[in-house]
From TrEMBL:
It holds the Pfam family AP_endonuc_2. Residues 22-265 form the Xylose isomerase-like TIM barrel domain. It comes from the Bacteria. This is Xylose isomerase-like TIM barrel domain-containing protein. GO terms for molecular function: DNA binding; DNA-(apurinic or apyrimidinic site) endonuclease activity; phosphoric diester hydrolase activity; zinc ion binding. Keywords: DNA damage, DNA repair, Hydrolase, Metal-binding, Zinc. It comes from Candidatus Collierbacteria bacterium CG_4_9_14_3_um_filter_43_16. The lineage of its organism: Bacteria, Candidatus Collieribacteriota. NCBIfam families: nfo. GO terms for biological process: base-excision repair. SUPFAM superfamilies: Xylose isomerase-like. Belongs to the AP endonuclease 2 family. Its cofactor is Zn(2+). InterPro entries: AP_endonuc_2, AP_endonuc_F2_Zn_BS, Xyl_isomerase-like_sf, Xyl_isomerase-like_TIM-brl.
Length: 280
């Protein structure tokens, strides 16, 4: 059975993520390890870790991912922002280790126009520092749609993985970001080209998660706008084609769709996602 779930809230405490996942029909999940609007992070308390882990076990859930703050920017030239980004990321990974998370997924950040080459050494150094200060939980770099200098094209990810050279460094691909970055997931030949590129860049073995989102923006628009499954420009047929490629069939699917009234992934979307995977 394939692992399909969504980003769920821990509002009210970490163990609430269990019920929230059951409610949407998920068997894997993604959370923020604290408030998505605040830099402040504190370690999960023992009691909530125990309750959460027993919930994961009772429900036979697959991987638990943590999404890092959207606020962070590892490419920032502002030392204050860079320090806050690094500190919160280290705290997220430490919390990830406590709950046996499959990894902390990050949007690397933006070079704000100066170009990847200008910031790449800093990125490698920060990634190595974060991995050096943590253990027992992976760091997962997500691909970007490419707007406003956002870092995370496949070649950039490949560069960072190669240079940082750490087995705990992994990647996550978001279907909406791929489409907005110009990969036409409605076309089998474009998907085949993508999987070949992933192989050529040594990224396929490091790919541990798919963010399954339809895309509300146009192909190659570089705009990061998620849509409900089947309601965007990729569409149900494109998403089905992509997730069932043999190279990708083992990967968990995490939805980050708007749902109804922007309440986030819901039962309808997760059910639809489960319906289109061939691995029942
Ligand atoms: Zn994503
Ligand atoms: Zn996105």
């Amino acid at each position: 059975m394939r692992f399909v779930g969504g980003h769920v809230s821990i509002s009210g405490g970490l163990p609430h993520a269990i019920g929230n996942t059951v409610k949407i029909g998920g068997n894997c999940l993604q959370i923020f390890a604290g408030s998505p609007r605040l830099w402040f992070r504190k370690p999960f308390a023992d009691a909530e870790v125990r309750a959460f882990l027993s919930g994961v076990k009772q429900n036979n859930f697959g991987p638990v991912f943590i999404h890092a703050l959207y606020l962070l920017n590892l490419a920032s030239s502002n030392t204050g922002l860079l320090e806050k980004s690094t500190t919160s990321l280290v705290a997220d990974i430490q919390n990830g280790a406590l709950i046996h998370s499959a990894g902390v997924i990050i949007h690397i950040g933006s070079h704000l126009g100066v170009g990847f080459d200008t910031v790449k050494d800093q990125l490698v150094a920060v990634i190595q520092r974060v991995l050096g200060e943590t253990q027992d939980c992976d760091l997962i770099l997500e691909n970007a749609a490419g707007q406003n200098g956002k870092i995370g094209s496949l070649s950039e990810l490949a560069y960072l993985l190669k240079k940082a050279n750490d087995p705990r460094l992994k990647i996550c691909l978001d279907t909406a970001h791929l489409f907005a970055a110009g990969v036409d997931l409605r076309s089998l030949s474009a998907i085949k080209e993508l999987t070949q590129e992933l192989k050529d860049l040594n990224l396929l073995d490091r790919l541990v998660c798919l963010h399954l989102n339809d895309c509300a923006s146009d192909l190659d628009s570089h705009r990061d706008l998620h849509a409900n499954i089947g309601e965007g420009n990729i569409g149900l047929a494109g998403l089905r084609l992509f997730i069932n490629q043999k190279e990708l069939l083992h990967l968990p699917l995490i939805l980050e769709v708007p749902g109804d009234n922007k309440q986030g992934p819901n039962l309808k979307n997760v059910t639809l996602a489960r319906k289109i995977t061939t691995l029942q």
